[in-house]
Amino acid sequence: MASNYAVQSSFRSEKQVPHGSPSSSSSYVRSVGGHGHFSVRASSKIPASRRPVTPNSRLHSDNDESETGRVRVAVRLRPRTADDLIADADFADCVELQPELKRLKLRKNNWNSESYRFDEVFTESASQRRVYEVVAKPVVESVLNGYNGTVMAYGQTGTGKTYTVGRLGKDDASERGIMVRALEHILFHGSVLDSVEVSYLQLYLESIQDLLAPEKSNITIVEDPKTGEVALPGATIIQIRNLEHFLQLLEIGEGNRHAANTKLNTESSRSHAILTVYIRRSPHGKDKDGNLSKEKDTDGIPIVLKSKLLIVDLAGSERLDKSGSEGHLLEEAKFINRSLSSLGKCINALAQKSPHIPFRDSKLTRILCDSFGGSARTSLIVTIGPSSRYHAETTSTIMFGQRAMKIVNMIKLKEEFDYESLCRKLENQVDHLTAEIDKQQKLRDDDKAQMERMLRETQNSFLEKEEILVTRSEFLEKENTRLELEMKNVLTELNHQKDYSALMCDEVARLDSKKVLADTIQMYEKKIGELAKQLEDEQTRCESAEQQLEVIKKRLSDHQMSIQTEISTYQQALADTTQLYEKKRAELTKQHEDNQKSIQMEGQKEIDILRLKFQEMNQLHGTTISDLQYLTTQYEDLVSEKAKLGEELNDVRQKLLVEQKQRKVTENEMVNLKKIIAENDNNDECFNVQDMKSYMKENIGKGSAFGNPLSVSKSNQSKEQCCGPRAAIAKICEEVGFGKILGLLSSEDSDVQIQAVKLVANLAAEDINQAKIVEEGGLDALLRLLQSSQNTTIIRVASGAIANLAMNELNQGLIMSKRGAQLLANIGVKTDDPQTLRMVAGALANLCGNENLHVMLKEDGGIQALLQMLKLGNSDVIAQVARGIANFAKCESRGILKGYKKGRSLLMEYGVLSWLISNKTNISSSTQRHLELCLCHLAQNEDNAQDFVSSGGLKELIRISSESSREDIRNLAKKTLRMNPAFRAEMHTELL
Fold first, then answer.
1. Is 922 helix (H, G, I), strand (E, B) or coil?
2. I need a labelling partner for 574 at 20 to 30 A (CA). Which of 128, 359, 589, 713 fits?
3. Which residue(s) pair with 549 in the sheet?
4. How many whole angstroms separate alpha carbon 262 and alpha carbon 779?
């Protein structure tokens, strides 16, 4: 798609836009609302959200302004390409832009045009930067604030969607598309984000493939049955480091994306590309000190914001006759148009506030269910071309954008409790407390070891002192003993001296007269004096020794007392320290026990919560497995249906060859019809026959649908091939008017009536024409033809037209109120023509699909007439009858299961069961499928159980449960056998 932009350089970069121009981004930003969105008139009411939310998330509505939830739509005009300049040289552009008024005029011709208003209109010269700032930047800022967002590009192929969204801009940064600019914007705020992750997928041939890991294909969509949220668990999610890393990933994804060369675009994208950006951010508030801190819930649980941004580059819609697609390109185009059609249906239903939104019709709509009618902020940019050759495609694109502008989303803030962060915080606290306890225990052990070491040192010192004192005491005792011994020796010597003195005295007394005696006495007295003096000295020495011994004893006792005092002091200090540490140990032990209890309580709470989540995940896992099995069954059915459709396609091709042979006959019929209309208008006021003839020759080229009014409803392929005649018929109706065409039904000329009723029958095959036919009295005219006409062709074609009208529920009620079923029943009884009976049976079969009309059908004889047609034995008639009774039985079983219908089935009264059992073979596969469904639905009514047992219907139901060619019918039969107690009892009896 980017090739059209490479042809001309009309898309100027932001450097070329003058800063002062009205189209510059600065002037535009001043005109937007409070959240950066386009300023539009306020809506009076925002409807409630269609999407539920997860149970552990806290959602807040963004009610700051009344229009914040509406889908914003901008339109961008592609410059004229070289092909446009050559092909449209003589024609003006079909589009006129009025960007200052935010309006777009679409010209039908030179004098007629229609005006449309959008939130923004971009000319062909608008820069990529301005497109991003207007369309995507408000959504990206909303995603950064915690909301989901979607930016999507829609338009015809070759109008610049991929250029607008996915342009890499390697050589010129000004050409970067929305994807690159959005990630650049997000990464600029990366400092406040916890993580930024991306996945890049493509939806190709209704299969989801991973562009970052091409080996991953057919990725399944998982939907939460409780919340409705959609996820793709098989997709590769990569965390983005920087912009260069993202550009590398985007380049890899673009290389793996499917593209092809068509007539409309040399690089046409053949798949829908979906870039998903996952953002996780913790909201920050300010504490008392003014510092940033994580916000917490009232329970103290931290909160995390989880949002995602979807950037969708849709593949372009294309017409096969203009794109020239064939072969594999044709298959790709069919799948692209089918998914875009499903998206359009969802947009229409949301715009009309329909109670049912068909999101499940396509994988694309399932992925985008939150973007339209959900909780995401969505911006849509539609791209168009200026060429008049694609006026119809441009009109369709503009109407898509207009309908999308009517959708209002309820924006929800995606807040969740951050249980992972809380768990990590609690684990860190437990580790910190454990380390603190270990540290205190280590300190206590160190103090205890130090006290024990000091006690040992004190004891050793005391023992050393005691040994010294004992040694000194022993020495003093030995010295005292020695002195006492010396004193005894001195006393003994004194006694000897006394005895010797006494002896000498006696000798002196004997020799007192002698001088010698006197000398001797003098000598001995002198000697006695010396000895007495020595004795006194010895006594003095003994007394001093005794005094010294007393001093030593006193010092020994004092030293013993001081040692005892010091020991008692050390023992008291040791006791006090031991008591202090025991008290501290008790306090730490108590604190540890309290912490352990609190941690255990919190851990138990977390375990209970995680156990509940685990149970929910188990239930979800079971549901997912059952859904997977159901989807597998559906896939197998689709494969078999694809094979059948291939066979039907071959049949249709054969029929198309026959239809081509009838082309000339059809043209002649149309010319005759125009002549008749011209004659009724008398003066040819409405249109010229010659002009109409040239128009018919130009547009009718693939066969006629006049001969068979029900041919449109047979298959989608035949419907596509008949688009040429239908276009001609629509043109005639537009120019002539429904009233005049319906007036020809009452013409007296039978040929005119035949041509008119064929035209009405073909108009009734289109849903868009049915309301006009009924409003103009076409239904009444067809019923009058059934009542009054005797022409077999008129009756057959009129019955087919009523069958087409009876496909609409509103028309069914009108047909019944006007006794249409009674008229159809009378025709079914009177005629034997197989084609007429097939039309009548088809009309009655459509009426049988409305359970509110069953009683009236019975009263008017419709059911009885439908069953009587079986006598003819025609296979086409039997197929329509089988479809009718299957519809009737399905509606009855629905009422029985819901509880507002009771009693035996009406079909049982007409003997339908015996016919179903007797005609189980030699029929077509589609008829057999209807018969098997009818049997299963009749068996769901317990009041029919006795008839099934007695007539052999139970055996046929058992056969269907094991031998049916369709898995869904086999499962339905097994479920019916399992739920009906009478069937279970009968089967148990047969086993015994």
1. coil
2. 589
3. none
4. 45
Residues with Cβ within 8 Å of residue 860, at least 6 apart in sequence: 816, 819, 821, 822, 825
Please name the residues in contact with 88: beta carbons below 8 A apart, sequence gap of 6 or more: 80, 387, 388, 389
The residue among 241, 260, 280, 291 whose CA lies nearest residue 421 is: 280
Angle (CA) 2 180 95, round 5° = 40
Q: Which residue has the tokens 């935010």?
A: 102
Element (H, E) at 378: strand 377-384
Q: What is the dihedral of CA 113, 117, 122, 124, to 10 degrees?
A: -10
Residues contacting residue 673 through CB under 8 Å, at least 6 positions apart: 732, 755, 756, 759
Q: Which residues pair with 95 in a beta bridge?
A: 106
Instruction: Quote the distance between the C-alpha of residue 211 and its chain's center.
Output: 19
* Helices (H), ranges, 722-777: 723-736, 738-743, 750-764, 767-775
Question: In the chain, what is the straight-line distance between the N-terminal and C-terminal CA atoms, in Å?
Answer: 71
| Cα–Cα distance measured from residue 716 to residue 123, given in angstroms and rounded to the nearest whole number | 39
Cα dihedral 850→854→860→865 (10° resolution): 80
For 378-402, the pLDDT digits (tens) are 999 999 998 888 888 999 999 999 9
Neighbours of 677 (CB within 10 A): 26
Q: Which of 424-428, 518-522, 711-715, 892-896 has the lowest mean pLDDT?
A: 711-715
Tell me: pLDDT of 31 over 50: no
Handedness of CA 749, 755, 760, 761 (dihedral sign): positive
329-338 residues labelled b (16+ CB within 10 A) or e (exposed): beebbbbbbe
Tokens standing for residue 314? 């849709």
- Which amino acid is residue 684, in one-letter code? D
Phi then psi for residue 962, to 5 deg, are -120, -25
Reported as a single tens digit per residue, the pLDDT across 246-282 is: 999 999 999 999 888 887 777 888 899 999 999 998 8
Percent of the chain having pLDDT more than 90?
21
pLDDT-based confidence at residue 12 (cuts at 50, 70, 90) = very low
Give Cα 794 distance to the centre of its chain: 55
Q: What distance in Å separates the CA atoms of residue 305 and residue 354, rounded to the nearest whole number?
A: 32
Q: Token pair for residue 169? A: 């801009």
Q: Are 173 and 395 in contact (CB under 8 A)?
A: no
Predicted model pTM: 0.42
Task: Please give the Cα distance from 930 to 904 (Å, whole number).
Answer: 21
CA distance 643 to 926: 14
Instruction: Say if residues 768 and 732 touch (Cβ distance below 8 Å).
Output: no
Q: Are 187 and 196 in contact (CB under 8 A)?
A: yes
Q: Which residues of 533-545 are buried (b: 16+ CB within 10 A; e: fewer)?
A: eeeeebeeeeeeb
pLDDT of residue 692: 35
Closest CA to 155 of 441, 396, 471: 396
CA dihedral 381, 382, 387, 388 (to 10 degrees): -150
**pLDDT digits over 707-759, tens only?**
343 333 333 444 444 455 556 666 666 666 667 777 777 777 778 878 888 88
Higher pLDDT, 847 or 49: 847
414 has which bridge partners? none
Q: What is the mean pLDDT of the chain?
A: 78
